[in-house]
Design a protein that fits this description.
heterodimer, A: mainly alpha, 2 domains, B: mainly alpha, 69% helix
Chain lengths: 199, 178
């Protein structure tokens, strides 16, 4: 008589039926050796579960807490950096506008408008103190994703600054508009949600 | 494993999300022991297990805002711990010691029931086999979930478990006499 393999015995312990389980059960009914094997398997698993819990010899919380504090500080600095970048870029664009020309090129005006809008949104977020407020998991995930994308746009803005005048203006305008869109979404996530739930 | 419950979990999680360090420490104190136990059962050394404990709670503190409260808090933390422990195994790439035993000693010793105790037998399994045994038989993960965490197939998880039980049975002197 061919006895059941360990893999088959294990599959008999699973909730769902696997192909061949029915014939394996028939064999089990007729074979005391396989029944003993299955019983020993049950007992072995029960003993595994009953092994004593192992405990750490050292308290690792101080290390975790220190890393968390560093991470929070870095995050706050990143947020402050975003606001600073917008202000600096605003000054840079103002300097691009030729003095005495009386009129500002249409592209530059659009860039300035996008930057002003971006600053206003950042200012709103800053006054709102989003970092100190509680978000549910899904909302926090969305906010984190938006912040990451804004950081990516900022990096692209730095690169765009190195381009030739004409292509730089086009690229900068595109990026500032994207930035405004992302900030709009971030404000929606924080402020609209808060007003909905009365925070 | 629902015995690892935090009495006032909802309020602790809410305060932890708001960045309250006291609440984060409460989470640590509540789940430190089960996380360490899981890590130690999977990792080879106490140092690795303590590192996994630290990495797990750093991740918990960073990601508590993303915890969706769909499953139990312990279930969420346990999955982070299991992933960190498996990552540690991949990084260390220990030699599978039970395989080494097979290579060197061959089947001669199989005739002799070694009669180890369960702790020693578990320790003697390869890293991968031990991880599968612990995650499946003790923590209750399915083969599909284990395969997902290990980046392998469910069949791999099943065959690892079967091989591990064959070895445990032999080492514990539990083979049924025909």
């Amino acid at each position: 008589m061919t006895h059941l393999t360990m893999e088959t015995l294990l599959s008999l312990r699973e909730a769902g039926l696997e192909p061949g389980d029915a014939s394996a059960r028939e064999h089990l009914d007729a074979c005391p050796i396989c029944r003993t094997e299955l019983e020993r398997l049950h007992q072995r698993v029960a003993r595994l579960r009953a092994l004593p819990a192992l405990r750490p010899s050292r308290d690792r919380w101080p290390h975790v807490a220190a890393r968390v504090r560093i991470e929070h500080r870095a995050r706050r600095q990143r947020m402050a950096g975003l606001i600073g970048l917008a202000a600096a870029a605003s000054i840079a664009v103002a300097a691009l506008v030729r003095p005495g020309s009386g009129t500002v090129a249409a592209g530059e005006r659009e860039i300035q408008a996008a930057m002003a809008r971006s600053q206003a949104l950042e200012s709103a977020l800053s006054q709102y103190h989003a970092e100190e407020r509680m978000l549910d998991g899904r909302t926090a995930g969305i906010a984190q994703e938006l912040e990451d994308r804004i950081a990516q746009v900022d990096r692209e803005l730095e690169v765009a600054d190195l381009l030739e005048q004409q292509s730089r203006d086009n690229q900068v305008l595109k990026l500032w508009r994207e930035r405004v869109g992302l900030l709009d979404a971030l404000v929606d996530v924080h402020v609209t949600r808060a007003s909905n739930v009365g925070l | 494993m629902e015995s690892y419950l935090l009495a006032n979990a909802e309020s602790v999680v809410a305060r932890a999300r708001a960045g309250d360090e006291g609440a984060l420490e409460e989470l640590y104190r509540a789940f430190e022991a089960p996380v360490y136990n899981l890590a130690r059962r999977i990792c080879r050394t106490t140092e690795d297990a303590e590192d996994v404990l630290q990495e797990t709670f750093f991740e918990v503190c960073r990601s508590i805002g993303r915890y969706r409260e769909e499953g139990s808090l312990w279930g969420w933390i346990r999955t982070i711990a299991a992933s960190k422990a498996l990552m540690r195994l991949r990084r260390n790439k220990y030699r599978d010691t039970d395989q080494l035993q097979e290579d060197v000693v061959g089947h001669r010793r199989e005739d002799t029931a070694l009669r180890m105790d369960l702790e020693a037998a578990l320790e003697r399994l390869s890293e991968t086999s031990r991880a599968v045994v612990w995650l499946h038989d003790v923590e209750g993960y399915t083969h599909e979930e284990i395969a997902g965490m290990m980046g392998r197939t469910p069949s791999f998880s099943k065959s690892q478990l079967a091989r591990a039980h064959q070895r445990l049975r032999r080492w514990l002197g539990e083979e049924v006499e025909v």
